[in-house]
Amino acid sequence: MSLDNIQWLADREGWAWLAERDGELQMNAAARQLVGPLVGNESFDSVAARLADLSVAAVSAAGDRTELAGRDGRRARWMGTDEGRILMVAFEAEPAAKASEPPVEGDLARAVGHELGNALGALVGWIGMLREHPETFTVETLHRLERAASTARRAARDLLGTDEEVDADVEEVLQDVARLLEPAARKRGNRIAVQVTGLAGPVSVRRGEVFRILWNLALNAVQIVENGTIRLAASTRSGRLLLTVEDDGPGMSPALRSRIFEPGYGERPGGSGLGLALVASTVRRLRGAVNVRSELGQGTSFEIRLPAPPRTSAVMAKVGSPRRVLVIEDDPGIRELVGTTLDLRDVEAVVVDCATAARLAVSQGPFDLAVADLTLPDGRGDVLLAELKAQGHVARTLLMSGHVDPGVLAGPPDGWLAKPFDVPELIAAIEGRAAPVVAVG
Questions:
Q1: Which tens digits make up the pLDDT trace of 121-145?
Q2: How far from each other are the two terminal CA atoms of the chain, in whole angstroms?
Q3: Does 166-314 carry CATH code 3.30.565.10?
């Protein structure tokens, strides 16, 4: 786990933290409330002692993953990485501002890289075959190309963390987690089983958050269990969605079970001790509950109870279809996709590749909607959209981007469309069904 990821989790949980990286001290707002102004060139140990309310000697003697108890009830924990060291302190004060995006683990990056390679390999193979033998093209061939492309898109989203506000069928999420972890499970002689029962049709969930919960629990099981079975399950009980991750591995001692969700605490060699803390944090944010049952030699079962989401519906009400749309996108593939989608829906589309061309296009009359990429060759898309709307050239604005955290946006735009997207998501955004962008900063 990188130092940045540890800092992210500490911010999300409202802990104070002090870090040392390349000889420089860093701390969040919560730590500054406790430490106060620095005195000259203070050492890390000196500032850490004030933060944890301990003596400098006690702080200096602490090793990696050491837990310290301060005199006023503060709980402090050390963690070290290749980049530096960090002291996290739990305290009763106003939590620090929370970061908006999750960290990406190396295990997930490797699994997604494998998945993308397979999907892109299938796409290139089919396209090559069709180039050599176009007479073999069938509807089934098109379906295979679409499945491969969809797999690549979902894998990219899981890696980038752009699925935070995307709805998906819970069974699809379970299957994706199982498929991504299957190579790692097979190396340890494990089998992953997926079971969905008691659901009256597809159940829609926030993909990003549910994926991270299941990924962290299942990855933990895969790395601990040998020659066993990991089961991922979904069902409903008493009006709530029930997710289960269980294994037939070595189980946990009562001491470990009682502290399993504490950040930095764990007994697995090489583990960061933060995966399960992230699970608990995400479940709390979803207003759910997590319970663990485990005995030594009897395996482990994690049960997550979430408020039951509505069933997925194939019919969604239109907010309004625009009649004239300005598209600003420098990538020719995306330009062609958006332009063709609009043409097929009898929407007049003016498609340009830069901000300069967009400013010329609006001189030909107003637009119902302007769609722009965040990063353009001659400026930022959000700044351009805010300008065009302020001048009355466009009624509504939609920003596209593959960035997880774009920072503070101008305007902000009326809607946000995360890349990569498919045609139904594009249509929903064009019709005003994309999530609005909240101004921050």
A1: 556 666 776 777 777 777 776 766 7
A2: 28
A3: yes
